[in-house]
Amino acid sequence: MDITQERLSDWVEKGLIYRKTEYLKDGKTMKRIFYVMGYLLYSMQRKNYRAEQEEMLKRLAGWISQTETLLNQLPDVRSADKYQDVALNKLYTYIEKLRAALTVSYREQAFQPVSAALEVQWRESRLSKYIHFVLAVATVRIEHEQFDWKQIGAAYYGQIGGSKAFDMEKKDFLGKLEEDLGMPLHFIGLVSLGAVTPILFAGELAGSSGLYYPAGFMHATTDLTVFEMEFSTPCRVIWLVENRALLTRLCADSLFLRSSGSLVIGLDGQIRSGHRKLIQDVMRNSPSVTQVLVWCDTDQSGGVIAGHVRELLQPFQRLKVKWLLSEPMNRRVGVYSAWEQYKQAIQQVLLEGRLMEQEEFLGGVELWKTWING
């Protein structure tokens, strides 16, 4: 930013800054002229800082009070639906966690403890809005057993425009809260959202309520269905693939799916709560499963998704996990049995800047068999 001499002189005259002249060793020859903060400007900045701190502490105190009120009211909210009761208990625990983080933030006079507790790296304004969103969801659920998206902001703010308060962050805030709760907000009471997550898969799968999907075809279920029952499979091999291209390719070879005992689950570029529940069900309820093959894109987001899958599979140590990596340098797919080796390989590819999507090399039946048997 260019500052005119006239403006500098005005600031010096008002005492906002001081002008200093630096001389060479002879004490006579001027070396440079520079400006430093004056006491008046320092006092103004300190005053603004104190005002901002006071405003932040006021907000934190208000949120702490709100969470305490909600924690007193939520235990009285009950549902005849067992899944809603589970979701409400998770919401209660989440607000307990939020209150604890807010209390630490108030004591330390900083937002960082809340960011750490919620595992986000958002601007303070965005984080504040998300806190309001969580409190708004709990507030509207206490008042209504079922509610739509517009009611969340309307019930919370109680003024014109409140219904649109969270529209800009709708996707991110819904995704974050559902991920943290481990359940779609449908089970808390949110209806008329128009957002149902499809889950595509190929292979034999059965639901505890009588649903049955035969091998040899591509199937689709939804996150709502997944949370209504438990799932299991008689398959031996589970494929977790980032996108639909490989799912479609494997499905085209229905004989391979049957002969290899494979169940392929598409993650559609993001592991949402429905994917997590289905994968956990299959791993927990299917003693026939012996190994899992994970195949994500060779890019930054593929590495992140693979990391989420690794966390998801941690409780199932009995399973053999293989990490598949499309390697652009030699135009092949590498198979890694150890996570650290896979992690190093994908980091090396990212450093070289040679990215590769699954669609570029899908392989065929004979190659897939070597991955399973190797």
Short description:
With 374 residues, this protein is α/β, with parallel strands linked by helices. It has helices spanning 5-14, 39-73, 82-108, 112-118, 124-143, 149-157, 170-181, 223-226, 244-252, 254-260, 273-285, 300-313, 339-352, 365-373; strands at 17-23, 30-37, 147-148, 190-191, 198-202, 205-207, 212-213, 218-222, 231-232, 237-241, 262-266, 291-295, 320-327, 332-336.
Overview of this protein structure:
- The protein has helices spanning 5-14, 39-73, 82-108, 112-118, 124-143, 149-157, 170-181, 223-226, 244-252, 254-260, 273-285, 300-313, 339-352, 365-373, and strands spanning 17-23, 30-37, 147-148, 190-191, 198-202, 205-207, 212-213, 218-222, 231-232, 237-241, 262-266, 291-295, 320-327, 332-336.
- It has 374 residues and is of the alpha/beta class.
- Strand 13 and strand 14 (332-336) form a beta hairpin.
- 51% of the residues lie in helices and 17% in strands.
- The protein has a 7-stranded mixed β-sheet with strand order 8-5-11-10-12-13-14, sandwiched between helices. Strands 7-6-9 form a 3-stranded antiparallel β-sheet. It has a two-stranded antiparallel ribbon with strand order 1-2.
- It is flat and about 90 Å long.
Give the key terms.
17% strand, 374 residues, three-stranded antiparallel beta sheet, seven-stranded mixed beta sheet, alpha/beta, 51% helix, 14 helices
